[in-house]
Specification:
This protein is mainly alpha-helical. Helix content is 47%, strand content 4%. It has a domain of 66 residues: Arc Repressor Mutant, subunit A (Orthogonal Bundle), CATH 1.10.10.10.
Length: 99
């Protein structure tokens, strides 16, 4: 029987197309979350470098907060993570859901 190995990639493609390693990720004590940093964490999870649980523990995030980052990236890319545009994108998607 073949055992399933827990192999993780050493690098993933970041939000701007650059190569990200664990050292390139935001510091665990990050207080100021700009869109790029959020997108880097989402890319690390989506690429398999971190699990959702590891990311939430490392950055002291709730599962709901991380899931909102993932949804924003899926819907609108990096721009969807900007705090100043969050209300705009929320209204836009609520309107499209009605039709």
């Amino acid at each position: 029987m073949i055992e399933q190995l827990n192999v993780r990639p050493a690098t993933v493609v970041g939000p701007l197309g650059e190569r990200l390693t664990m050292e390139d990720l935001p510091a665990p004590d990050t207080n100021r979350w700009v869109a790029r940093r959020k997108a880097e964490v989402v890319a690390a999870v989506n690429g398999g470098m971190l699990t959702i649980e590891e990311a939430c523990a490392r950055y002291q995030l709730t599962l709901e907060e991380f899931a909102s980052w993932q949804r924003a990236v899926e819907r609108s890319g990096l721009a969807g993570l900007r705090v100043t545009r969050a209300q705009h994108y929320r209204e836009l998607y609520q309107r499209t859901q009605r039709f």
